[in-house]
Design goal:
The complex is a heterodimer of chains A (112) and B (113). Chain A is mostly beta strands and 112 residues long. Chain A has no helices and 11 strands. Chain A is globular. Chain B starts with a strand and ends with a strand. Chain B has strands at residues 3-7, 10-14, 19-26, 30-38, 45-51, 56-59, 62-67, 72-77, 86-94, 101-103, 107-112. In chain B, strand 9 and strand 10 form a beta hairpin. Helices cover 0% and strands 60% of the residues of chain B. The chains are: A mainly beta (112), B mainly beta (113). Chain A binds chain B through residues 32, 34, 41-44, 46, 49, 51, 57, 88, 90, 92, 94, 96-106, 108, and chain B through 4, 31-32, 34, 36, 41-46, 49, 51, 89, 91, 93, 98-99, 101, 103-106.
Chain lengths: 112, 113
Amino acid sequence: SQTIHQWPATLVQPVGSPLSLECTVEGTSNPNLYWYRQAAGRGLQLLFYSVGIGQISSEVPQNLSASRPQDRQFILSSKKLLLSDSGFYLCAWSVSGRYEQYFGPGTRLTVT
Amino acid sequence: KNQVEQSPQSLIILEGKNCTLQCNYTVSPFSNLRWYKQDTGRGPVSLTIMTFSENTKSNGRYTATLDADTKQSSLHITASQLSDSASYICVVSLASGTYKYIFGTGTRLKVLA
C-alpha cells in the first residue's frame, strides 16, 4: 500500500532562518507531487507541483522553493523565512491521469 | 474566475443528528468534485469523488450529491458521531490538467454529546 510521510510534524523558526521540509512517498512510482499551504480559515493554496524528477512548477511567487531530487522525495525550502510563511504545510501525491490526491500528515510551521 | 464556496462556515450539532453541508462552484471546464474530511492538525482524507455523470456517491454515513447543471454539491452526514467533528473541504478539479484543483475554505463541524 502507498504511504506518504512528512517531517518534521511541527517547527518553530525565527525570522530570517532557513527552512527545509521533506516529504516522501512509498509504494508508488513516478507520482505527481504537490506542496500546499493552509492558513487559518483559508483554503489550501498550491505552492508547487512536480510531475517528475527535477521538474518543478511554481504557482505562487514567494521566497519558497521546491526540489525533487528523487522520484518519491519532495523538499520545500527557504533561505530566509518571513513571518507570513507561518502556516500548515501539506504534501500530497497523485497518480498521473487519476483524480485522487492523497495528503500527508502536514507540518505546522511557526515563524517567530 | 474559478471559485469554490462552502456553507455554512461552521456548524454545531448534537450527536445522532443529521446535517448537510453545501458547496457551490464556478469552475470550468469541470472534471470532478471531491469531498475531504480534515481533522484538526492532520492532512485531509478523501470521502467521495464524483465526475460529471454521477449525481450521488455514498461512503458509509456520508452521502454526497452533485448537480452539474446548477453547479452545486452537498455532503449529507447521517446519525452524526463525535468523531465527525472536523473540517469538510470541497475540491473541484479542472479538466485541463491533473494539477488544477480549486479548494473551498471548508465547513468546520462540531458534534456535541
